[in-house]
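Please check this record.
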Amino acid sequence: MMCSPVWLHRSSINTRRSSVQGFTLLEAMFTVLVLIFMTAMAVPLVNNVMGAYRLQSAVSSVTGAIQSARYQAISSGYAYQLVLSKANGTFQVQNDPSWPTATTFANVCSGGATSCPVPLSGSSVPVVLGADTTLQFRPSGMVSATTGSTTLTLTHGGKTETITVSSYGNVKVTP
């Protein structure tokens, strides 16, 4: 077995290092341009999906408040109402423990607060309510609208969801 001189090994290592090449400036710029183009295409799609999630979130929040207020009226034995404000984009649950002798509803808040409206949307781009609406829930389970109607519309980003509440509290959501 023959040993090669040390200088022969060093020259072959140096040759391998010099043959390794990187990307050219043109290739790197092309890659960056493709990434920017793909990102520009994805941004509207992401915004559209986020808008749909915001609308669904608002619909779930309102339908949950409707069902909760109805159940509270049935279990407590006195009237509750849900006040939805178009101008503020909020809703507020109220009750009337003196019902049926009086009809003075007070806000239902925790921690001693006198007002605790819940926003329809948790983002800076609001979900728009079609009209001011007040739904009143009786201990018998009956639901009636004292302001507006029992059909609510919520709109966000050109998409509309309709919430319909029957007189017995059945909630139906249609796109």
In short: The chain has a mean pLDDT of 86. The first strand starts at residue 79 and ends at 85. Residues 37-174 form a domain with the minor pseudopilin epsh fold fold (CATH 3.55.40.10). The CA atoms of residues 23 and 29 lie 10 Å apart.
